[in-house]
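Appendix C: a fully annotated inverse folding record. The material below is reproduced so that readers can follow the format used throughout the book. The structure is listed first as tokens, followed by the designed sequence.
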């Protein structure tokens, strides 16, 4: 399992932010990950008793796909203490994000942080990974203690396929990860289809059939790899839907997700 330093997940600062909705508290948290000061949002409903925890793994990189407060508020409103790491180098955090490389430890430390809070406790924490956040969530399910069921929504499962599909991302991928032929292992290590047999959590795949950013082939490849490895997996493909769902349907999908997480 992943080794931790004594300080990983230790909170350095908690900054109270305006409540995103009535009955919800929001904080910007600074914590340690591999000796770096990194940041994330913690959002939880007001409660006199313990709450289940949940970690939201954002997509994108740097300013693209940054955690949106309305998104984590929607999750917290369902009765969860939600932590959403920004990953290193973002919003004043130290270090440099590297798309599922060393920055995965920022997620692992965030899971440790959430499980140590008095309001949540040590139970395994479900993860929701959106877009490239799926890589992060599934890496955690492979390498990190304390991970519960994992939901991947519009998730990247094969980074080589992303390189082929997204011509607009090739420059970034070559800079951050490397060239897929010269740095094949860097791509494999970030591609859950290559190590599906090591994923230790049940996985629910959510994907739109017309996803313009992460093609639906990612969903099919992940499901096939997990089934071949004998791992528990479920998949819901939403016909005609893109990377981001319409608001009303988004809420319906969240109903499905939270029903699956809780059973």
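Designed amino acids, in order:
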């Amino acid at each position: 399992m992943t080794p931790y330093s004594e300080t990983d997940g230790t909170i350095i600062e908690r900054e109270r932010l305006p409540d995103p909705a009535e009955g919800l508290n929001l904080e910007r948290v600074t914590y340690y990950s591999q000796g770096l000061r990194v940041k994330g949002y913690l959002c939880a409903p007001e409660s006199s008793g313990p709450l289940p925890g949940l970690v939201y793994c954002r997509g994108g990189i740097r300013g693209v796909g940054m955690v949106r407060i309305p998104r984590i508020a929607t999750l917290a409103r369902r009765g969860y203490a939600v932590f959403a790491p920004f990953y290193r180098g973002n919003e004043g955090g130290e270090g440099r994000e590297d798309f599922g490389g060393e920055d995965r430890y920022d997620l692992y430390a965030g899971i440790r942080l959430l499980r140590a809070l008095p309001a949540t406790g040590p139970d395994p924490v479900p993860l929701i990974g959106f877009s490239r956040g799926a890589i992060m969530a599934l890496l955690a399910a492979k390498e990190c203690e304390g991970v519960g069921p994992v939901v991947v929504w519009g998730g990247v499962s094969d980074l080589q396929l992303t390189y082929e599909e997204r011509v607009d991302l090739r420059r970034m991928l070559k800079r951050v990860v490397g060239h897929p032929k010269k740095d094949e292992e860097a791509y494999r290590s970030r591609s859950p289809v290559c190590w599906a047999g090591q994923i230790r959590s049940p996985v629910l795949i959510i994907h739109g059939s017309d996803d313009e950013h992460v093609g639906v082939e990612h969903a099919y490849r992940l499901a096939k790899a997990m089934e071949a490895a004998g791992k528990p997996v479920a998949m819901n493909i939403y016909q005609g839907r893109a990377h981001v769902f319409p608001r009303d349907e988004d809420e319906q999908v969240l109903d499905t997700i939270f029903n699956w997480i809780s059973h």
